[in-house]
Amino acid sequence: MNQPNLPEQHTSESLSRLLNQVAQKDKHAFSVLYEATHRKLFGVVYRILKHQALSEEILQEVYLKIWDKASSYSASVASPMTWMITIARNRTIDEVRRNQIPSSEEDVDFDAIPDDSMMPDETFYKSRELVKLEACLDGLDSPRAEMIKAAYLEGLSRQELAEHFHQPIGTIKTWLHRSIKQLQGCMTL
């Protein structure tokens, strides 16, 4: 039940509606979407780049892409946050590959950036999904679980994975493909 004078909490459904309005070039909906999601997307970008100013610049490009591609969003394919995080992650990894960005020692206090984009029941659901994902990752062979984390959380390219794990790129591609299939099967149980 919504209480008056409280900030709106955004659910997957409300974010989907906002994306549909953004697809119709609704600037107000875009502003609301930005306010609801920019902290989380900044975190995704910053985790990979570790450069605050560059992360802010890339985040602007991410939101331009969201504005341009909102009409291609489909709720039946992915949740709104998953769709936007994928855009952010892919754009950031492209930047890393293009410019071979060195790591920075900058510190951003993520605890000082409130994240009010999920309802408590969504947080509970997400935490249950995270526990399940961690259990599924534990079911993978140790180097493969590490490889999945390095690829999808740290943004390492296949070449970087090959160097890190001392394996040919073809082997890395096969391991990634098989590991993702195994994770998908585990997550649907």
CATH architectural category of the largest domain: Orthogonal Bundle
Enumerate how many helices there are, as a single number: 8
CATH superfamily of the largest domain: RNA polymerase sigma factor, region 2, helix turn helix motif
Oligomer: single chain
What is the makeup of the main sheet? Answer: none
- The helix-strand sequence is HHHHHHHH
Please outline the helices and strands.
Blueprint: H1 12-23, H2 27-49, H3 52-69, H4 80-99, H5 120-138, H6 142-152, H7 158-165, H8 169-187
In short:
It comes from Marinomonas vulgaris. The protein is mainly α and 189 residues long.
Could you characterize what this model shows?
The chain has 189 residues and is mainly alpha-helical. The protein folds into two domains: 118 residues, Rna Polymerase Sigma Factor, Chain: A; 71 residues, Winged helix-like DNA-binding domain superfamily/Winged helix DNA-binding domain (Arc Repressor Mutant, subunit A, Orthogonal Bundle), CATH 1.10.10.10. It is 69% helix and 0% strand. It is built from eight helices and no strands. Helix 2 crosses helix 4 and helix 3 packs across helix 4. The longest helix has 23 residues. The two termini are 32 Å apart. The N terminus is likely disordered.
